Amino acid sequence: MVKNDNTSRKALYEEAGKYLLDVSKLIFGGVILAGVMNLNVDKLVLFIVGGISVVLSAIVGFVLFKKGKE
């Protein structure tokens, strides 16, 4: 029973890591599209907040994915 619980936990970590990596890609695409389009937003703030969000979600995604593979 414990082995099954550990296996499901690893699978959960791996899927959460994949999800966060996908979120990171979507944020990156949204930042690029918002920067290219003529929207009324401050581009410096957009790129700083978007860049920080992409990096943080990618790092957490990679950590969870690696933890699920161990």
Can you give a write-up of this model?
With 70 residues, this protein is mostly helical. The protein has one domain. 89% of the residues lie in helices and 0% in strands. The protein contains two helices and no strands. It has helices at residues 2-36, 43-69. The two termini are 19 Å apart. Pfam families: DUF6722. The chain crosses the membrane at residues 20-39, 45-65. Keywords: Membrane, Transmembrane, Transmembrane helix.
> Helical segment tally?
2
**Based on CA inertia axes, which overall geometry fits?**
rod-shaped
Helix content: over 70%
What's the SSE pattern? HH
- Find the structural class using helix and strand composition: mainly alpha
Number of strands: 0
Stretches with pLDDT under 50, minimum 5 residues: none
Please, what is the average pLDDT? 91
Give the N-to-C terminal Cα separation.
19 Å
The description of the largest β-sheet is: none
Task: Estimate the strand proportion.
Answer: under 5%
Q: Compute the gyration radius: what is it? A: 16 Å
Task: Count the domains.
Answer: 1
Describe the structure using short key phrases.
70 residues
What's this entry about, in short?
Pfam families: DUF6722 (PF20482). The protein contains 2 helices and no strands.
Helices and strands, with pairings:
Elements: H1 2-36, H2 43-69
Helix pairs in contact: 1-2
Keywords: Membrane, Transmembrane, Transmembrane helix
Transmembrane segments: 20-39, 45-65
Pfam families: DUF6722 (PF20482)
